[in-house]
Amino acid sequence: MSKIYIVEDDKSIREELAELLRNSGYEAECLTDFSNSKADILSAHPDLILMDINIPNLNGEQLLKEIRKESDIPVIMVTSRTSETDEVLSMSYGADDYITKPYNPTILLLRISAVLKRAAGNTSVQSYNGLQVNDAKGSLTDGSRDVILTKNEMIIFRLMLDRKGSIVTRDDLMTALWDNDEFVNDNALTVNISRLRSKLAELGCNDAIETRKKQGYVLK
């Protein structure tokens, strides 16, 4: 049974999360005293941490940064913030995923399951045209520069990479995003692809994504 450690200062939310996790077959433990958060979390030896950003003393992002100095425990940030900046910052500090409140319990459980499977498999680093693709960090690197992808950008890139050289339709991408994020629409897909192109270009992969009109996209 996987142990999940909840770092949330709102008692009612904390208790709801713990009940949801226990009813879903997980062992749930909660942080209630935030005076020595990092030491208490690490001493609990959890399999995964659910961490709010807005917590006392160190905020969640700073606490994550401190934890990453000593441990690779999977971390999912659970927060009421909706800014992409917060998502990118959390992923750059080492978060494995990011979900906003109010969250869909089913989606949260799917995210938890996916992160635990990824951690157990330990196959998160692959390559593309000389770049390292790190799912766990949500990053692309050429060895000297790291570029952080948002969760949706990584989902799009990963699907295209799995089908490199073949057409990936907008419907394929929308389905993949829908399974991971209930707030995706067609305009958001276009914006995410544009940002992904720009980030690949930063690392020297210009024109990496080709648009095929009325068909979809091809990662070259």
Q: Which of globular, elongated, flat, extended, rod-shaped describes the shape? A: globular
Task: Classify the secondary structure makeup into a structural class.
Answer: alpha/beta
- Report low-confidence residues grouped into runs of 5 or more: none
Rounded to the nearest angstrom, the distance between the terminal CA atoms is 42 Å
Percentage of residues in strands: 15-25%
Order of helical and strand elements: EHEHEHEHEHEEEEHEHHEE
* Total number of beta strands: 12
**CATH architectural arrangement of the largest domain:** 3-Layer(aba) Sandwich
User: Which sequence of strands runs across the widest sheet?
Assistant: 2-1-3-4-5
Biggest beta-sheet profile: 5 strands, parallel
What is the CATH topology assignment of the largest domain?
A: Rossmann fold
